Amino acid sequence: MYFPKPNKRFLNQTIYVTGHLYPDVDSVISTLMANQLLKHFGFKAKPLILRYPDQFTIRILNKLNIEKPPLRDKSTFVDEKVFLVDHSNILNSIGKGTNCEVVGIVDHHISPEVDKVCQNTYIKQAASCSLTLYKMMKEIKDFKITKDHKRMTLYSSAVDTSAMLSDKISREEKKFIMKLIEEENIPLEELKKDILVETDFSQELPILAKNGFTTFNEEGINASSIYIEVCVHTQKKEEKIKRMLDYIQETTEYQLCVVVYWNFTLSTTTVYFCGALNKNQNFQTFTLQGIIGRGNTIIPMIREKIRIYNKQKN
């Protein structure tokens, strides 16, 4: 495993390190870790985020006493050098048309959207991008790994793998993370308590339908998403979710509303599509193993839904 250092010709230029457009825990922590590695190798690196993180991400960063990177609007980038983490195509962060050059990539998603222009790339399926970067740090003899690095990696990986319950984590990675848990003396149950937060089902439908609310604008279509998390499964909660879906379908002002419903008991994530693009249709759903994001990392699904809609329309 190696850290994909940018070309030496970039040593005297500022390199901006960024995760994807909708920063979650892994994206933010990976940004900070990659920034440290770039500085270790003598590069003038600066971490940043492109949007304000959701409340869950802020809560985990506060738990770790981590200050979030500076916020910068993607429209302000022109002719600059960027290093991508937790995604592999500039379309998913700064966007094209800025003449920015991607000088390095570290990602843990195998994706056909990878920026082929960048030669300094490390992409390998893994539990989290931060775990990949942590392993890179361990390979560098003169890089000092701190307690903060271990805790950041541990929490980021726990969030991305539902406290190691998701089938996206390999046996080797689980063993590696469990060793970190032992070293840091953080009980797995404490981790679960920190990252598994059940949605308050006592709320009225209009409030419940705004849980983790995020808006998007993709291909001229106004979209939104909410996130529902269930730690203790009951029939009563299932029934309220169905009523909430009907309420969203009837009242949403958005052409597309994506509802992400994670069930901790079953370790499944179900995605529902509501809104004008779904009029006169049944709710379109699909289920994935493990967790896929807390309402702000679902842009690929929105794009896919829009693609299918446009295809049907034409």
TrEMBL record:
<dbReference type="InterPro" id="IPR038763">
    <property type="entry name" value="DHH_sf"/>
</dbReference>
<protein>
    <submittedName>
        <fullName>Manganese-dependent inorganic pyrophosphatase-related</fullName>
    </submittedName>
</protein>
<dbReference type="InterPro" id="IPR051319">
    <property type="entry name" value="Oligoribo/pAp-PDE_c-di-AMP_PDE"/>
</dbReference>
<dbReference type="Pfam" id="PF01368">
    <property type="entry name" value="DHH"/>
</dbReference>
<dbReference type="InterPro" id="IPR001667">
    <property type="entry name" value="DDH_dom"/>
</dbReference>
<feature type="domain" description="DDH">
    <location>
        <begin position="14"/>
        <end position="142"/>
    </location>
</feature>
